[in-house]
Amino acid sequence: MFKTIRKFALCTLCLAAMSFVHAALAATVTVNSSADVSAADGACTLREALQATNTNLAVNGDCAAGQSVPAIDLIAFAIPGSGPHVITPAGYIGSIAESLVIDGMTQPGAVPNTATPDQGGLNGTLAIEISGANCNGCNFPIGFALTSGEAAFRGLAISHFPYPVNLASASPATFRIEGCHIGASIDGLAASGAQNAIAFNSGVWYIGGTTPAKRNLIVAASSVIWSQSAASVTVQGNLIGTTRNGLVPLPLSNDAIHLRLFAGGSAQIGGSDPGARNVIGSASGFGVHLIGYGADGMAFRVENNHIGVGADGVTPMPNLAGGVRWGTNSPVVNGWPIIGNGNLIAWNTGPAVVVAGGSNAVTEVVGNSMHDNGLGIDLNENGRTPNDADDADSGSNLLMNHPEISAYNWSNGQYTVRYRVDTALANAAYPLRVDFYIAAGVDDPEGAQWLGSELIDAGDAQQWREFTVPGPQGFALAATTTDALGRSSEFTGPDRLFTDSFEVP
Ligand SMILES: [Ca+2]
Ligand SMILES: [Ca+2]
Ligand SMILES: [Ca+2]
Ligand SMILES: [Ca+2]
Fold first, then answer.
1. CA 207 to CA 238: how far, in whole Å?
2. pLDDT confidence of residue 21
3. What residue ranges of the chain have pLDDT lower than 50?
4. Which ligand ends up closest to the CA of 428?
5. Quick one: pLDDT at residue 250?
6. Ligand nearest to the CA of 390
7. Where are the beta strands (DSSP E) in 384-431?
8. What is the whole-number distance in angstroms between the Cα of residue 212 and the centre of ligand 2?
9. CATH fold of 402-505
10. DSSP conformational letter for 128
11. Cα of 399 to ligand 4 centre, how many Å?
């Protein structure tokens, strides 16, 4: 019998690394007052500093002039006295008109986070808060009017605004949110009144990053990140729906990350870098909800996150509707979305992963660790879908049949599994890949620990076969089928009959 153990390569289809050329920082305009006035009073306020960097003129004799693009101006902070310093504008401060970094970490007393996602929550200290508590009718403190270059918020707590970071206009510019508390208190212990913390309908967005100093804490009442656009979105290293320790839920009433992306849009949530992991929990909707229209399938990735579980990988932080949902009615071109490469998806009330929207909805779901969700993988969003003879049915991921395991045993450190996939050649793209996992439990047939995989070539279609794979003794197994065009099945099982003996059908 032909048999191949195929090593699972983490990050088989990573996005090409993106790189950006940074212009040198140009003029630095230093804010030395937490007041909100614009007057020749010897103090440079944030309102005046924004004017100085936008107009590239000195303001009131108090704030130095910025420089013109392509220079990227810096607004720094040196407010006297002990912090934290709260800037409480009485009205909208203004819009960023050209490239600019507003960096709260420059304020004495601010300490950047040094904890990696593996080490847990955030350990830094912010020193600058922009609060909307006195800003009647303000949706956000500072808008974005730039149409090129980049704008960044760094090391800021933005609180008491309904939409703290908001881009309503069309812009191809780049936007970075790094080391901030968005919609969270400056101490990182409470939500602070945001509806949607970060909302945009265009642009190239980097929310967080793979270095500790870039990790954000982001909470909201509705969705943390919301877009309906052709934006490009990279979300890495953040704590979403939790306090700064990554363990205490701060509930959301909608999806935590809700991205309805049109052709040209992309989403990278997490990534193969260990520093890319997000913690995503506490949503009444899904942890990550991606909806694609005419999407580039290579441009949707959810990898290496904790979804429904805290930063420690243990503490439940469930998303009620489920972990991740991919939905589309439009054909996906150029590859297919991937939900895999080490996500831990646990404790969600609904399924760990939903693929919905008919036969155009294609998503590879491989290499995750799942347990204690309402269901593992749900194709067609209708609960467990049984296999059908020859796999002629259609629907999300073509309702790919899962492997039928007739028997398995364990000896000498490995499992021997007798199984087949009842999928006729005409009804899938061969070769099929079958992935085996330690199941979360005999009654919980979600793949909790990936063991190995093999390919079934066209010549072996629908035949019973044996596969041997190393693994720890005494567990039930789970398995999925994935065809050569990325269409994954639901999980095999549960089957309690053969957990401790090998029986030939
Ligand atoms: Ca002044
Ligand atoms: Ca400028
Ligand atoms: Ca189903
Ligand atoms: Ca089927």
1. 8
2. 41
3. 1-23, 497-505
4. 4
5. 98
6. 4
7. 404-411, 414-420
8. 28
9. Immunoglobulin-like (2.60.40)
10. E
11. 4
